[in-house]
């Protein structure tokens, strides 16, 4: 069953919160989470601000009790009210109890109605144990309580704590990579694949067969005879019928996973409905051939706090007396975490390269030639024989996801923010998260705030609900 409710933390915010809630004195501490929301139907609460309650401001702090002034709730209301954000007071359980105590229940019955008097239809509460595990619940105005299915931290590692299966001493043990336990957990998560062509179809095949409960496939393009040599599951009949790639692939997934797993979104990621569909994901795979699409994937990941895995391949050429020759055969995999360095920070695209791409679109013939030359730089090749290269890169991309959510490396994942490989020289180059600069990101964790992604062209149409 898909986890329809989730509390998602950017990794850096979770680390700061954990340090505050566990200062080393063994006493309870508190904070208030101000959370944006994704658009429906899923309810993903995205931690946008953390308002820390100073330890010395608390009237009482013991190993199992805390009393703190209302000033900080009022501060949270002032921050969250304008955008209708959800407030989630959170406190520590230094003793390790991974559940809400009777004292917590009484505190919520006193505090939450005060927040509802100010605004909102839903607010919550949460607890954290010393290892950083989080458990959360949601209240409506009638004070009916609903457990939040999962709490998730998207940092160097992707950490998840489920509300069910937990015991008083802690959450259920994490699954081990490549096991049936991993498959069972993935069945509760949603993967989004943007671009279901040469590389994207291979990634989509992997995530579908790995067991994701929902696979959202976004692509506006049609199957053609010239790309049958690199799109998995595509047939001559699909090409002759000019079938949409996303719909074709969703039908293929249905043959081995059932009808309700793959969701086709047959449109460009530059369209509002496609962005809304992508916002429902727990992990985002960007397998696109334009800088604009990468730019949008970058913004979706930031706005909705979704881990992003971006993959690209290229075959640069050089001129010799004998004509064009292969200079290298390359691939790149980037992992982008909310609050970390973005694809823009890493110069995968820049304002200038985006503008140049927009300018080329004014020349449809030249733009199509640019796309046709996308794999082999310097040679226009409509049907490049690159499925082996695509498979190498797509496999590395999905393995990067597995390494983040089910760590198996001997080194910290922070060292693997970007991986570039060269098949010509048999080399792999790693870039760590700390190797990149990080600019201010005004849309980080804004959720469903209009206009979507901070882009006026994606604003809700006039008169729409």
Could you explain the architecture of this structure?
The strands form four sheets. This protein has a nine-stranded mixed β-sheet with strand order 9-8-7-6-2-3-1-10-11. Strands 14-13-12-15-16-19-20-21 form an eight-stranded mixed β-sheet, with helices on both faces. A two-stranded antiparallel ribbon has the order 4-5. It has twelve helices and 21 strands. A hairpin with a 4-residue loop joins strand 8 (134-140) and strand 9. The chain has helices at 11-21, 71-80, 102-118, 180-186, 200-210, 236-240, 245-257, 272-278, 291-303, 351-361, 364-372, 387-405; strands spanning 5-10, 30-37, 43-52, 60-61, 66-67, 86-92, 122-128, 134-140, 145-147, 150-154, 158-162, 190-194, 214-218, 262-265, 283-286, 308-314, 317-320, 323-326, 330-336, 418-422, 427-431. The model has no long low-confidence stretch (mean pLDDT 94). The protein has two domains: 5-162, Cytidine Deaminase, domain 2 (3-Layer(aba) Sandwich), CATH 3.40.140; 180-458, 3-Layer(aba) Sandwich (Rossmann fold). Helix 5 crosses helix 12. It is an alpha/beta fold.
Provide the descriptors you would attach to this structure in a database record.
465 residues, alpha/beta, Cytidine Deaminase, domain 2, Rossmann fold, 2 domains, nine-stranded mixed sheet, eight-stranded mixed sheet, 12 helices, 29% helix
């Amino acid at each position: 069953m898909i986890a329809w409710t989730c509390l998602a933390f950017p990794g850096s915010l979770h680390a700061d919160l954990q340090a505050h809630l566990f200062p080393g004195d063994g006493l309870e501490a508190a904070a208030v989470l101000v959370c944006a929301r994704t658009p429906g139907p899923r309810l993903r609460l995205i931690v946008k601000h953390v308002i820390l309650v100073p330890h010395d401001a608390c009237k009482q702090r013991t190993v199992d009790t805390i009393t703190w002034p209302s000033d900080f709730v009022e501060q949270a209301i002032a921050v969250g009210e304008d955008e209708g954000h959800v407030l989630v007071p959170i406190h520590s359980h230094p003793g390790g109890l991974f559940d809400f105590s009777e004292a917590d229940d009484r505190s919520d019955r006193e505090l939450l109605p005060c927040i509802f008097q100010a605004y909102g239809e839903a607010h919550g509460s949460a607890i954290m144990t010393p290892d950083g595990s989080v458990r959360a619940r949601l209240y409506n105005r009638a004070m009916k309580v609903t457990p939040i299915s999962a709490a998730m931290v998207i940092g160097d590692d992707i950490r998840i704590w489920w509300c069910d299966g937990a015991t008083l001493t802690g959450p259920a043990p994490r699954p081990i990579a490549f096991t049936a336990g991993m498959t069972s957990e993935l069945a509760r998560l949603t993967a989004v694949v943007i671009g279901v062509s040469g590389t994207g179809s291979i990634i989509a095949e992997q995530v579908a067969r790995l067991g994701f409960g929902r696979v959202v496939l976004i692509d506006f393009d049609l199957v053609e005879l010239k790309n049958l040599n690199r799109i998995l599951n595509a047939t001559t009949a699909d090409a002759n019928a000019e079938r949409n790639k996303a719909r074709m692939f969703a039908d293929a997934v249905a043959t081995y996973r059932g009808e309700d797993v793959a969701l086709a979104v047959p449109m460009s990621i530059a369209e509002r409905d496609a962005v809304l569909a992508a916002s429902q994901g727990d992990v985002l795979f960007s397998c696109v051939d334009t800088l604009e699409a990468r730019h949008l994937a970058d913004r979706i990941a930031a706005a909705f706090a979704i881990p992003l895995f971006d993959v690209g391949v290229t075959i640069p050429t050089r001129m010799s007396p004998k004509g064009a020759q292969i200079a290298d055969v390359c691939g790149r995999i980037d992992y982008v975490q909310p609050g970390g360095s973005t694809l823009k920070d890493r110069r995968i695209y820049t304002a200038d390269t985006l503008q140049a791409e927009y300018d080329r679109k004014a020349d449809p013939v030249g733009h199509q030639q640019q796309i046709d030359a996308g794999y082999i730089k310097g040679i226009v090749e409509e049907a490049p024989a690159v499925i082996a290269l695509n498979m190498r890169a797509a496999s590395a991309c999905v393995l990067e996801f597995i390494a983040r959510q089910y760590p198996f490396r001997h080194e910290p994942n922070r060292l693997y923010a970007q991986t570039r490989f060269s098949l010509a020289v048999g080399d792999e180059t790693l870039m760590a998260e700390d190797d990149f600069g990080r600019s201010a990101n005004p849309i980080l964790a804004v959720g469903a705030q209009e206009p979507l992604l901070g882009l006026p062209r994606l604003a809700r149409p006039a008169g729409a609900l």
